[in-house]
Design a protein that fits this description.
Structural class of chain B: alpha/beta
CATH class of the largest domain in chain B: Alpha Beta
Shape of chain B: globular
Distance between the termini of chain B: 29 Å
Shape of chain A: globular
Largest sheet of chain B: 9 strands, mixed
Strand order of the largest sheet of chain B: 7-8-6-5-4-3-2-1-9
Radius of gyration of chain A: 27 Å
Number of helices of chain A: 12
Helix content of chain B: 25-40%
Largest interface: A-B, 26 and 46 residues
Oligomer: heterodimer
Strand content of chain A: 25-35%
CATH architecture of the largest domain in chain B: Alpha-Beta Barrel
């Protein structure tokens, strides 16, 4: 059992950084320095426990760890390290993690300098009144320029960097000094120990043995084993079955989590649904007066249809989604059916990466083969009869004559780029209907841009385009800023005369013609030749605005079939048949899976 | 009843060939023929073959011209009472081993059709395919066969080997038609697993136009295109039997036999076969398997598909293809007008 210490000896801190600036490596190094993990147990990035996180080198779920530390002053301190997800899709989780801390290490790569995400996260940290310690990482790199980077931080963020740490998480250089700085500079928690329980759920997940678990920060009072607690947004009451402190190897049991501490609450719930991130836990008999501010359910931002390739796997997909939902309440899904793809689910995600990760987990952990349609945002439609509807699937957009106004979600995009790519980026943003809000030179080589831009233009292939036009040097972050009216139309694709519901997209009217043409041409390349010539058309309502043809096939035969070994030939044919079955038949046309994502790659 | 006899010996292994044959087992030839006769006697009983009941015989390989007429005599002695008068008896031969005396020897035994593995009249291409004969040997072999008395002579050609052009193939066809042949099998090169070419699959070129070009050139000279790869003034009775799913006996290591709903596979390994020629694997075909085979075989050749074997669903699709000009209907039989599309049409119907 980890020793109890007074609040004055507790330090709760997060690490915020742009992706790849070495956050997880530094976390590992701090854990090691405090002796919580032996050398042998130290696999790289111990805090990233999901396979996909390790493979991609990203952090998806926020993790935490409680560390015992004897400082130079000889006192015993508890350091609670709260790791934060490093991707824009998970910004809500970032904000909740930060809300649980009194301070944060702001990691900046010594060679790359300030990036868009650094700025976005710093604003969240400042909103939460956190003490920030600027930490320049990777100072062992030959290209490291720590002082230039610190100047950039002062210029771009306006943060005083007089007191800072220079470290190499890789070699460990500067890390002991950094830990001392954490003890010295980050304020201890200061909650009312005698008040009723008030704790913030800042992460929750599902454990196969223990059920749903909540990771909490106790602000006031304490949580005790056996206590009856209330979840404030739902008013549900639960018994605390067990309590633990988080540890990278295995959690440490405790009888109470006191004021200022973090810990894991075991309730035995069957799903994380009832333990949403951002919610407040209090005592059921003697509840606290006010819940902690800022709670919102994680809202899906991007939607796509997910369909099993084999139509009889629909129920398997439902089971798999239900299981993932146990652990990730931000996924939403409801059954939908498509003429082209059969039965599947319209699924909501926090963002593009979240969608990719979920699709990959469904395929990998549940052994499903899936088709995902192109991702889309939510639209608010005001109909001529006054009714207001929400559209998650472009195909469901009412006919133009019934629409009075369409509203689409906008985001505020923050982009940091070397000046040499400024022209390219501005062109890209203009093409994507972006509206410039800010353009600041943070020094002579780098520019900070802020744009308001329709989310619809981001879900298509904005990341890839941004990367390719800037050779990967620009960084990007965003936050939703609400809905605005747009001049939008539904573009349908017809294959052999039939509208393919899963291929419909919503586009700005002025771009409909060029998009339609690019779309049909890209489908022409993807749809294999069939027995008959196949017309591929783009239309708005009944107006055909672009068309092309896939020519009919001239030859498909495996020439040899002699010596009487007809079985062999039959098996070859059956193999071809299975190959065709993997494609989706629309009318009598076989359409390969890639076609359903083709819209993402249009020029 | 049809009979196939497999001779698994070759002088050299062609780089594209996946048929069962050996270049280093010539010592076993006599024992092999003895084993083959043992299997033949068994099959004649199993298939309940009556006197004068065998309509055609095909001796394939491998290279049947690596076996002397003397050895074939033993086989023909066993077969004699069962062969129908006027039966088509074909033997495959390689131009380098089909000498005048060999040809006349097998002709004397009653063989009346010979099929030469010519593949090309271009020496460079022959070497690249690892053929063991030359252009001149091929020309002489065909002429010798005619001299000996064969009235039905066929030769094989291969196309879509890399760098094949219309000019190269037109020259092959021109030379072929200057010879006394009444049949050509023109095969597109296929890369088969386990062959030398499977290591360099790029030797096959993908040129669909060339297939149509060859077919047109051969047809233009008066041969009928009666199956994807087969053209002739005379159409092989034996091959047509396979495509109609007639029963056939298959003897030898690597042969295949068929009766009603069963396919028979004797051992492929020569040594095993010699030890136990009756160790025969059996495959049972379902009704669907047979329907599938009837459909694709019918589409690959001018045999077509009889409407009465099809269910309503398939008839509907077939009628649609007739309407679209992809098939024609001749009485109750659907016929394919472009054999090169046969797989695609079969997949559409099935």
């Amino acid at each position: 059992m980890s020793k109890k210490v007074p609040q004055s000896h507790i330090r709760n801190f997060s690490i915020i950084a742009h992706i790849d600036h070495g956050k997880s490596t530094l976390a590992d190094r701090i854990i090691q320095e405090c002796g919580a993990v032996t050398e042998r147990q130290m696999s790289s990035q111990v805090m990233d426990t999901m396979d996909i996180e390790k493979e991609r080198g990203i952090t998806i779920k926020a993790q935490s760890v409680r560390l015992d530390y004897i400082a130079k002053d000889g006192e015993h301190y508890i350091l609670n390290l709260i790791d934060t997800p490093g991707h824009v899709d998970f910004s809500y989780e970032v904000s909740r993690s930060l809300a649980s801390s009194e301070g944060a290490l702001l990691i900046i790569d010594a060679a790359q300098g300030v990036e868009a995400q650094t700025i976005a996260n710093v604003y969240i940290a400042l909103d939460n009144d956190l003490e920030l310690i600027p930490v320049v990482n990777k100072i062992d790199l030959p290209s490291a320029e720590p002082y230039r980077v610190l100047e950039e931080v002062e210029e771009a963020i306006g943060l005083d960097c007089t007191e800072h740490s220079l470290v190499s998480a890789k070699t460990g250089q500067g890390v002991p000094e950094l830990i001392e700085a954490i003890v010295d500079r980050i304020p201890p928690p200061n909650g009312d120990e005698t008040a009723s329980t008030k704790a913030l759920i800042y992460d929750s997940w599902f454990d196969n043995y223990l059920g749903a678990l909540a990771l909490v920060r106790v602000y006031e009072g304490k949580i005790e084993k056996g206590q009856k607690i209330e979840i404030m947004s739902t008013k549900e009451e639960h018994q605390v079955l067990d309590l633990m402190y988080p540890n990278p190897i295995s959690p440490i049991k405790t009888d109470s989590i006191n004021t200022g501490e973090i810990g894991i609450v075991v309730t035995g719930l069957k799903s994380v649904d009832g333990l949403q991130v951002g919610d407040t836990i209090t005592d059921a008999k003697n509840p606290t007066a006010k819940s902690i501010e800022g709670f919102e359910s994680a809202k899906p931002f991007v939607f796509a249809g997910i369909y099993p390739i084999e139509t009889d796997k629909f129920e398997d997909l439902r089971d798999a989604l239900n299981k993932l939902k146990l652990n990730d309440s931000s996924i939403s899904f409801e059954p939908e059916s498509s003429l082209a793809l059969g039965s599947g689910f319209r699924t909501g995600f926090l963002g593009m990466l979240h969608m990719e990760v979920i699709k990959e987990r469904l395929e990998r952990e549940f052994n499903l083969e899936l088709i995902a349609t192109a991702p889309t945002v939510i639209y608010e439609v005001e109909k001529t009869n006054g009714e207001r509807v929400t559209i998650q699937n472009p195909f469901d957009l009412p006919p133009a004559q019934n629409i009075s106004k369409i509203y689409e979600p906008y985001i505020k995009a923050t982009i940091l780029t070397p000046t040499e790519f400024l022209g390219n980026i501005i062109k890209l943003l203009n093409d994507r209907r972006g509206i410039q809000v800010k353009m600041d030179y943070i020094n002579e080589t780098r520019v900070l841009l802020e744009y308001d831009i329709p989310m619809n233009e981001i879900v298509m292939d904005f990341y890839d385009k941004l990367k390719s036009t800037t050779k990967g040097y620009a960084s990007f972050d965003y936050e939703p800023i609400g809905f605005r009216e747009g001049n939008l139309v539904k573009l349908d694709i017809r294959v052999a005369g039939e509208v393919v519901d899963a291929l419909s997209i919503i586009v700005p009217e002025e771009k409909a013609r060029s998009r339609g043409l690019a779309f049909v041409n890209s489908l022409k390349e993807l749809i294999p030749r069939q027995l008959f010539e196949v017309a591929i058309q783009a239309s708005i309502g009944n107006n055909i605005i672009a068309r092309t043809n896939v020519k009919s096939m001239g030859k498909n035969v495996t020439a040899k079939c002699y010596g009487g070994d007809i079985t062999r030939k039959r098996k070859l044919l059956e193999k071809q048949k299975a190959g065709k079955k993997r494609m989706k038949a629309i009318g009598s046309v076989n359409v390969p899976q890639e076609a359903f994502m083709a819209v993402l790659k249009l020029e | 009843m049809l009979l196939y006899i497999h001779i698994p010996y070759c002088d050299s292994k062609c780089y594209y060939c996946s048929f069962n044959s050996y270049t280093d087992k010539f010592y076993s030839r006599e024992n092999y023929i003895l084993a083959l006769i043992k299997q033949l006697e068994f099959e004649l009983k199993r298939f309940r073959v009556k006197t004068c009941n065998i309509e055609s015989i095909f001796i394939g390989g491998g290279t049947p011209s690596t076996i002397t007429p003397k050895l074939y005599e033993y086989i023909f002695k066993t077969l004699e009472p069962f062969i129908m008068s006027g039966a088509e008896i074909t033997i495959e031969a390689n131009p380098n081993s089909a000498t005048l005396s060999w040809l006349s020897g097998v002709y004397e035994l009653g063989v009346n059709r010979v099929s030469f593995g010519v593949q090309s009249f271009n020496n460079r291409k022959l070497r690249a395919l690892n053929r063991s004969h030359s252009t001149n040997q091929a020309i002489n072999a065909v002429k010798n066969a005619k001299k000996v008395g064969f009235s039905h002579i066929s030769l094989d050609l291969i196309y879509n080997y890399m760098n094949d052009t219309k000019e190269i193939l037109k020259r092959d066809i021109d030379i072929a038609f200057n010879l006394p042949i009444d049949h050509i099998s023109a095969y597109e090169l296929t890369i088969e697993d386990g062959t030398k070419f499977s290591l360099t699959p790029e030797v096959k070129q993908e040129d669909n136009d060339l297939a149509f070009f060859i077919a047109d050139e051969i047809k233009r000279r008066g041969f009928e295109h009666y199956e994807i790869s087969n053209f002739g003034k005379y159409k092989s009775y034996h091959n047509r039997g396979y495509w109609q799913l007639k029963d056939y006996i298959g003897v030898g290591a690597g042969a295949v036999g068929f009766k009603k709903d069963r396919r028979y596979y004797p051992s492929i390994n020569i040594d095993n076969y010699i030890k136990n020629p009756l160790d025969i694997r059996e495959e049972i075909l379902t009704k669907e398997d047979i329907l599938t085979e009837k459909i694709f075989l019918g589409l690959r050749s001018n045999i077509g598909i009889d409407e009465t074997i099809l269910n309503k669903d398939i008839v509907k699709k077939a009628d649609f293809l007739v309407e679209k000009g992809k098939l024609i209907k001749d009485g109750k039989v659907y016929k394919n007008i472009n054999f090169f599309l046969s797989d695609e049409i079969a997949l559409y119907l099935l």
